Amino acid sequence: MPWRRAWHDALYASGSGFYRSGDGPAAHFATAANGPAGAALAEALLALWHRSHPRPPTVVVDVGAGHGELAAHLAALLDRAGDGGASATTRVVAVDVTARPAALPDRVEWLVSPGGAALPHALDEALDEAFVGALVVAHEWLDVVPCTVAEVGTDGALHELLVDPASGIETLGDALVGDDLSWCERYWRATEPGDRVEVGRSRDEAWSGLLGRVRSGLVVAVDYGHTTGTRPPAGTLTGYAGGRQVVPVPDGACDVTAHVAVDSLEADERVRQRDVLDALGLTGATPAHDLARADPLAYLSALQRSSALTALRDREGYGAFWWVVRRVRPADVP
């Protein structure tokens, strides 16, 4: 079957999809949303909001929320904000395909998503109330929106790539045509036999669909990706299971993911995470040693924050992530 269909079933099929069965991704890998790094990431997102908005958002939405770790960090920061309690009224909504995690704070609302590009209708209601504005975060969401995978055949044409879901064995299908081919001609040209393309059109549509739900505010996609001129000839499709990278067999036993062509997404800014943190003044500087003597607990807290920001800035790791930023103003909405 086409990779896009097999990929979607492998992740989101009821009862058997990787994101719906067992302990899901949390049993296999951690993301920047976990632990102290997640708290620092939440701090950066709210700092980005306040750089252009004097008032707190009406609602904060975390799309692809996993077990709600980032949403919980955002809620905790909003509750501690020194703005006379204004941030405490901000709704915090997490969206993911699984049932509400038992340990999630009551402060965070939970919406169950169909999976992939599809989002729940209840999200519209939350965003319709965002008269002041919504801060919407899609952290590592677009990379698991399944897309068409294609390969250049010996005839020099791009062909849709088919896969056996049980074994992962691939074969070439029909030549790529229509909108997918047009997307490749614009964003990811491939001409050498064996070159592969992950056609980002489905990610573009998912992103546009999310933007279209926001009346006013700031929408941020945080993901690993590439741009024209840096597209990898072999593609980026891969799998993760048990804490390591594996061959992407779409049988539901592993995560299947591919980097995002970030320059095809509608955006006001596309910036590496390390550069965003620099611009926000979140440098991860080590706290002064004098603080260790004056207030040991405050020193340990500051040291933890510094270590988390250092991890988020790592050029070989999270720091290479892209932030795709779109500002939605009321005049932008029909």
Automatic annotation (TrEMBL):
Against InterPro entries, the record matches this protein to: NDUFAF7, NDUFAF7_sf, SAM-dependent_MTases_sf
Q: What keywords are assigned to this protein?
A: Methyltransferase, Transferase
- Gene Ontology molecular function: methyltransferase activity
Q: Which residues form a coiled coil?
A: none
Q: Which GO terms describe its biological process?
A: methylation
Query: Which protein is depicted?
Result: SAM-dependent MidA family methyltransferase
Organism, scientific name: Terracoccus luteus
